[in-house]
């Protein structure tokens, strides 16, 4: 089997981040460190059950992890997966830059 490109490995990350609720959860975890479901639902109309499901999608994509602290689960960001996705976007951007440079040379040539 052929080795997957960086952007192919990052596809689950992009799919998980494509939902506004999940993107908001990631932003909250970036700003607030490890947070409980109660903290993540505070001030929102999203139910605890819905947030739990969204967090599971993020966990399946490798974006967050949870840990138990007493009876409470606390969720935190897994930054390495976001870094991998950023590198995939950087590679795609470089390909576009190269293609545009070729086009420019052709047009000006």
Report on this structure.
The chain is α+β, with helices and mostly antiparallel strands and 109 residues long. It is 66% helix and 13% strand. The chain contains 6 helices and 3 strands; from the N terminus they run αααβααββα. The longest helix has 30 residues, at 79-108. The mean pLDDT is 88.
User: Between the first and last Cα atoms, what is the distance in angstroms?
Assistant: 41 Å
Number of helices: 6
Assembly state of the chains shown = single chain
The dominant shape is: elongated
Would you report the number of β strands? 3
Radius of gyration, in angstroms, nearest whole number? 18 Å
Low-confidence stretches: none
What helical percentage do the residues reach?
Answer: 55-70%
Biggest beta sheet summary: 3 strands, antiparallel
| Overall average residue pLDDT | 88
Instruction: Provide the spatial order of strands within the biggest beta sheet.
Output: 1-3-2
Order of helices and strands: HHHEHHEEH
Q: Could you tell me the strand content as a percent range?
A: 5-15%
Structural classification: alpha+beta
What is shown here, in short?
The protein has 109 residues and is α+β, with helices and mostly antiparallel strands. Helices cover 66% and strands 13% of the residues. It is built from 6 helices and 3 strands.
């Amino acid at each position: 089997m052929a080795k997957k490109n960086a952007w192919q490995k990052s596809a689950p990350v992009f799919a998980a981040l494509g939902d506004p609720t999940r993107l908001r959860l990631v932003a909250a975890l970036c700003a607030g460190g490890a947070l409980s479901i109660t903290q993540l639902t505070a001030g929102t109309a999203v139910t605890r059950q819905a947030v739990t499901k969204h967090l599971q999608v993020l966990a399946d994509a490798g974006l967050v992890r949870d840990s138990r602290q007493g009876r409470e689960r606390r969720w935190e960001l897994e930054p390495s997966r976001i870094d991998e996705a950023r590198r995939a976007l950087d590679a795609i951007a470089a390909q576009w830059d190269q293609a545009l440079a070729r086009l420019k040379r052709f047009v000006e040539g």
